[in-house]
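Module 6 notes. Inverse folding takes a fixed backbone as the condition and produces residue identities as the prediction. Think of it as a translation problem where the source language is geometry and the target language is the twenty amino acids. Below is one complete input and output pair. Work through it position by position during the lab.
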């Protein structure tokens, strides 16, 4: 293998580095051992780290995390090239083609020529989308046409939702697809009523498990009911136009922040471990109160 190109801003440099890492003759043993399946968890993790940098508003970290995510794309593409399936250039070509194909309101009539030249379409009769909602409707219609052209037999309104998504995200997408054909609650109030109903069903199954912890059927029903409860929670967030992932990340960050404050408060008393729950609750309340006071101090 030759040395990597000198310019680190050139994508060919990264491609050459990955090829060198995967080279059987002098490459990295760890990188050579990896497969699509072994790298997939890292790909998911890097995507979440990008989201975390965005949540924190840290643009310097976002640059680094986007680089880590790009590395995942290059890694997968390199393994595919070694297998004779496709190369990084094919990945780029595929997404360029898809973006042009799914944006007829931008690239209509002149199509790929406009994309290559960076020009806006100007031919008579071109398609124009009136707003973002119309763009999304067109996008879904084009996706359905693409699946039909590939010979995919699934014509359900729920077709095309990846099974590899985090389950909370898949739940929201299933609900969104069903809503497009009218199968949806009219607003958040009936969803809240359904949430209370599911809580009672979970309570009943918890009681059944408590009565006989060895009852496998009761445990299976409990898992089923908790799943229903979580599905309704995702639906409530959707109706409230709240991103489930962002809301959960916010809750996680709040818990971590307050728990760390609890630990700091309890340090003078020997730490949290071994203290009764009532005492730990008092530290939690103190942490919450300190957080509230800090917010009020910064409010104009």
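Target side of the pair, the amino acids:
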């Amino acid at each position: 293998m030759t040395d990597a190109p000198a310019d680190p801003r050139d994508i060919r440099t990264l491609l050459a580095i990955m090829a060198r890492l995967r080279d059987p003759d002098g490459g990295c043993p760890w990188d050579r051992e990896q497969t699509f399946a072994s790298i997939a968890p890292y790909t998911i993790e890097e995507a979440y780290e990008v989201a975390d940098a965005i949540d924190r508003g840290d643009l310097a970290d976002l640059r680094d995390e986007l680089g880590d995510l790009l590395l995942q794309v290059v890694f997968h593409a390199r393994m595919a090239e070694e297998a004779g399936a496709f190369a990084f250039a094919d990945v780029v070509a595929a997404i360029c083609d898809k973006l042009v194909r799914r944006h007829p309101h931008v690239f209509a009539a002149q199509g790929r020529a406009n994309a290559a030249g960076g020009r806006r379409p100007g031919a008579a009769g071109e398609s124009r989308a009136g707003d973002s909602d119309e763009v999304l409707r067109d996008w879904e219609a084009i996706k359905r046409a693409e699946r039909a052209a590939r010979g995919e037999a699934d014509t359900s309104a729920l077709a095309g939702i990846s099974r590899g998504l985090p389950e909370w995200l898949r739940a929201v997408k299933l609900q969104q697809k069903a809503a497009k054909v009218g199968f949806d609650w009219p607003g958040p109030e009936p969803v809240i009523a359904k949430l209370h109903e599911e809580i009672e069903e979970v309570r009943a199954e918890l009681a059944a498990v408590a009565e006989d912890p060895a009852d496998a059927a009761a445990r299976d029903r409990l898992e089923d009911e908790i799943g229903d409860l979580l599905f309704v929670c995702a639906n409530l967030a959707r109706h409230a136009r709240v991103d489930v992932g962002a809301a959960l990340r916010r809750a996680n960050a709040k818990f971590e922040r307050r728990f760390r404050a609890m630990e700091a408060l309890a340090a003078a008393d020997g730490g949290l471990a071994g203290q009764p729950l009532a005492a730990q609750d008092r530290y939690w309340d103190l942490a919450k109160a300190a957080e509230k006071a800090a917010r009020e101090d910064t409010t104009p």
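Reference fact for the lab report: The domain at 11-96 is CATH 1.10.287.1080 (Helix Hairpins).
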